[in-house]
Amino acid sequence: MSDQSTEAEQDRDAREDEAYTLSQKDISAILYAVEIDDAAKLTELMEPLHAADIADLLEQISGYDRSRLIRLYDREFDGEILSELDESIREEVIAILTPQVLAEAVRDMDSDDVVDLVEDLDDTQQAAVLDALEDSDRVAVQQALSYPEYSAGRLMQREVVMAPEHWTVGQAIDYLRATPEEELPDQFYHVIMIDPRLHPIGNVTLGKLMRTKRATRLIDIMEDTFKVFTATQPEADVAYAFNQYHLISAPVVDDEGRLIGVITIDDAMSVLDEEHEEDILRLAGVGEGSLSDRVMETTKQRLPWLAVNLVTAIAASMVISQFEAAIAQLVALAVLMPIVASMGGNAGTQSLTVAVRAIATRDLTGANVWRVIRREVLVGLVNGIIFAVIMGIVGVVWFGSPSLGYVIAAAMVINLVVAGLAGTAIPVILERVGVDPALASGAFVTTVTDVVGFFAFLGLAAAVLL
Amino acid sequence: MSDQSTEAEQDRDAREDEAYTLSQKDISAILYAVEIDDAAKLTELMEPLHAADIADLLEQISGYDRSRLIRLYDREFDGEILSELDESIREEVIAILTPQVLAEAVRDMDSDDVVDLVEDLDDTQQAAVLDALEDSDRVAVQQALSYPEYSAGRLMQREVVMAPEHWTVGQAIDYLRATPEEELPDQFYHVIMIDPRLHPIGNVTLGKLMRTKRATRLIDIMEDTFKVFTATQPEADVAYAFNQYHLISAPVVDDEGRLIGVITIDDAMSVLDEEHEEDILRLAGVGEGSLSDRVMETTKQRLPWLAVNLVTAIAASMVISQFEAAIAQLVALAVLMPIVASMGGNAGTQSLTVAVRAIATRDLTGANVWRVIRREVLVGLVNGIIFAVIMGIVGVVWFGSPSLGYVIAAAMVINLVVAGLAGTAIPVILERVGVDPALASGAFVTTVTDVVGFFAFLGLAAAVLL
Q1: Residue B295 is nearest to which of A317, A342, A375, comparing CB atoms?
Q2: Strand spans (E) along B68-175
Q3: Cα angle vertex B201, ends B196, A265, to 5°?
Q4: Which positions of chain B have pLDDT values less than 70?
Q5: Closest chain A residue to B286, measured at CA
């Protein structure tokens, strides 16, 4: 038995080594090099690491180790590491870097990465980074910053590969070969075809371009699926479309429909990832926080939701206080009442999570909202009946009172039906009035299930038992 | 005021029209065409829609409309729609399609899409789809199915573009132009370089290939970042690496390290999306469900978590029942006790959600676990003190008893500290012993905060007040 588990563990460790570039061992070795102030050793250990892994490393070590590591590694510091860093750590790191190193680091970054880097910095740091850029890059970054936050304009890169619609394959290839490296994006997958007014009309993939005869017209080998975004469109729409239509890259246009940039799938993937993160954290009432935030920041992020919950809990207590006399007569009520409320709260959370997710993925729409509400209510009813029977029996066995069993059973059914209804209807209504359902649904649904749970149970008990 | 809101609504509608290909109006028009049995009109309306949107449409309408629509649209039915459909609906749709239409639909799909399609079907349907394939495709699909579920082998496509490491740019381009279309993948972004033993050694992007002189050796224009996956590696690792290292495509090798397929970013993006979905639903105790499941399926998915919660709630009730005498003496205790438990439950959920996410994104590791636990406990302490003061005052004002205020304040601090500790430590421990923390943490943490909450409040009250 112990052999087996050891083998399974080894398997697991081996698998993890394969998947993670950064192992616990690497981290220890790096921290040791920092401790003995061995810059050569540190550089040697950091050399094989990807910028994303270095960023993870910086996030995971303590603030003290972080600042010592950066000072020791200073000269080698790459701009890409900054892009990959979590916001809260990023500001700290930028503050530690010398101006020269910072300038060096940002100078070779793509414009969209610089935008992503500077948009969350405070004004002094933003100015420092912008000053480090060449004039044309600075203008590009400033222009991108003029688009609203979380818009396609902030997400796009300005380096675009385009070709007039009347070109042939041969013309496009010759153009690509003649264009100097620095005018092309680092990575590109499509040539975007434009009409004379600079409006994008279609995509040609590089694979097709390479495999097609030189005389063929580009227009004849265009992709079927083609989506265009405007610079002011929310990045959430962009991420949705990339995911829904399996896009690899897509052009961005200005208000006149002219091509001004391109968004690639890796940017869309990051947005999707952030959206998910946000949804999951908001559902739990955690706000924007990250693991590397400090105690006071984290406390501040968590406090509002706990305050809302306190109001909710006090409202529920007020319902209970209406039945003080009943409880004083029959203390069993106090013992059993949290069960009904807790079951309702959980069933409500189930329904609301499904609804919030379905709204986020655009699967819950006007076309099926009534069917979904009906289903959730019926699910509440069936589960309500099942747990009513169980709790009825528990009530009888525990307290020897069949009527106490009936009361808790009836309250259970009522609360689970209400939970299904509230859990679906509340997020839908919040979305309609323009409030993020992930953020606010939980408090509303819990209030409903607590109040209904206590009221149904204690009210029925007062009417039937006393 | 009403003008403003109308304008805002119009803005919102316009934006939604831009983002969604499928509008509420489209759905109504399509359902009307189905109702009047107008196949020509239906085909005309469906023609401009992307397969992913048609799949969404089928998911959102009722079962009755769905089967009528499919029968009317039958001949035009595209394999890609099946790929995009939700599992539960997919089986239903396949059962409605005639064998000829089904055969036609799957025949022009990529091998990885067919795998994705058949892996969840029951045996009869799977056989029907496999029979429809050509021999070579069927062998490919069956081979893919021999890899474990949720592995890189299931995710990859077998069509690969490769070149020997000693080739020049010119040789690679000539090879690409000479290869017949059907042997190449639909979309590809890299040429994978291999050594004589078929081991992949690097990637060359098509953009670079196209822009480089014919005489240059491929090995000199390889990408810096290159990741190789083995066929048996979990797809979650693949998705993580694509996201972490901004990969676009990556080779898959067998146990001997030989190149057998390639995974592209759109597949990785789908996996990432599913992983998130699973995490968020598991955190809420909803299991694998989807919006299109029926009442009984949904009930069954939700029931286990509610059953666990019932056990938890009964455990908490048993704590309360130990203090029946105290409650009988002072009913205010029954009124106030849910507040302490509820605040603890919420604070615990906050901590555990952050921990579960950080484990999933591999940001919470051995390197920082103690620092994170320490932070969560301190956050619990600070928030505990803040809400202790508030509740102490509420206790005094509401019930006119300073000592009741002290008791509830002390219980609040204790429970919020415990919530921070349990909310972080429990998911970390579950992950270490190989249990998915997203699935099981909630029940454990809530049990701890309920039991500690009731015990601390009622216990202190019994000791101090009575």
Answers
A1: A375
A2: 162-164
A3: 135
A4: 1-21, 289
A5: A350
